[in-house]
Amino acid sequence: MATFQDVLVVLDPTSESQKALNRALELAEHTACRITAFLSIYDFSYEMTTMLSGEERESMRLAVIKDREIWIDSLLRAAREKSIECTTKVVWHNRPFEAIVESVAENGYDLVIKGTHDHDVLKSMIFTPTDWNVLRKCPCPVLLVKDHAWPEHGQVLAAVNAGSEQAHHKALNSNIIKQAQAVARMLHGQVHLVNAYPGTPIHVAIEIPEFNPTEYNDSMRHHHQDAVKALADSHGIDTEYCHVLEGMPEDVIPKVAQDIDAEIVIIGTIGRTGLSAAIIGNTAEHVIDRLDCDILALKPEHHPLS
Q1: CB count in 10 Å sphere of residue 12
Q2: Domain 152-306 in the same topology as domain 1-149
């Protein structure tokens, strides 16, 4: 993660524990990145105070913003004493995810860090609509974090699609692994690769009597194993840490993450929006929804802001 130099940290005004800020400060101690502590606030009652003039309403909004800036500065005091470069940014906006995306577009941040909500009963993370919209629409990588420290010698899981010959998938695979290796260096940990591949299409096996599902499965498995080995070799990763399993990514990746007790999963996401997202969905989103660790979501280069 040494390539991330300007980090936007989304604060949670409803929580005493600022997990996103804690993770950003942890990152800054290793990479000397610059941190912008960001808060989007809005109170509809201020817009509805018809007895006040426009100037008076604006003055009230500025007073609220100033109060929040003072609060954020108190959170950053210890970091600044350590010479970590921190700035404060508070905006008045009624749609938090749009405020985040607009800020990234305007200021060129190269990473957004945001906390997730833990669900004690299910022992999993709960994602808000803001989380999903940021994942889909933010033009830079997004790190979603839990409330825990990154331990020494933690396991890092890179989810790749090694079986694809498409150039953008190859480039994304390489970026995912490079980021995983950067995190592993910080943690003095180990990078693992995980690759899911599809099983026999049932409808083909039924409709074509001469179709041999065993041969198909063997061929598919060997193809993905060879592709993952080549990818691992090119990045200096031992095949001992490669996990190539049959199944859907949303099943395979969480399983491997749990098996190796991963601290973070790094995954690529296309970030579909609109009708295509509603109908087709996004494989990464199905995976993310079932993980119980930090998640770094990367997009292909030149990802359009949509």
Answers
A1: 16
A2: yes
Q: Which residues pair with 195 in a beta bridge?
A: 244
Provide the whole-model pTM: 0.87
Q: What is the mean pLDDT of residues 201-217?
A: 65
Q: pLDDT by residue (tens digit) across 213-222?
A: 778 788 889 9
Q: What is the 3-state secondary structure (H, E, C) of 262-303?
A: EEEEEEECCCCCHHHHHHCCCHHHHHHCCCCCEEEEECCCCC
- Cβ burial, residue 119 (10 Å; 0-12/13-18/19+): exposed
Domain boundaries, the chain: 1-149, 152-306
DSSP code of residue 210: T
Average pLDDT of the chain is 85
Q: What residues contact residue 22 under an 8 Å CB cut-off, 6+ apart?
A: 149
Selected from 3.40.630.30, 1.10.10.570, 3.40.50.12370, 3.30.565.10, the CATH number assigned to the domain covering 152-306 reads 3.40.50.12370
Q: Which of 111, 146, 152 is nearest to 265 (CA)?
A: 146
208: left (phi over 0), alpha (psi -120 to 50) or beta: beta
DSSP strand pairing (294-298 vs 34-41): unpaired
CA distance 250 to 254: 7
**Distance between CA atoms of residues 249 and 265, nearest Å:** 13
CATH (residue range 1-149)? 3.40.50.12370
Site of tokens 């990045």: 235
DSSP state string for 135-155 = HHH-SS-EEEE-SS---TT-E
Q: Which two tokens stand for residue 60?
A: 């009230």
DSSP 8-state symbol, 82: T
List phi, psi (to 5°) of 160: -120, 165
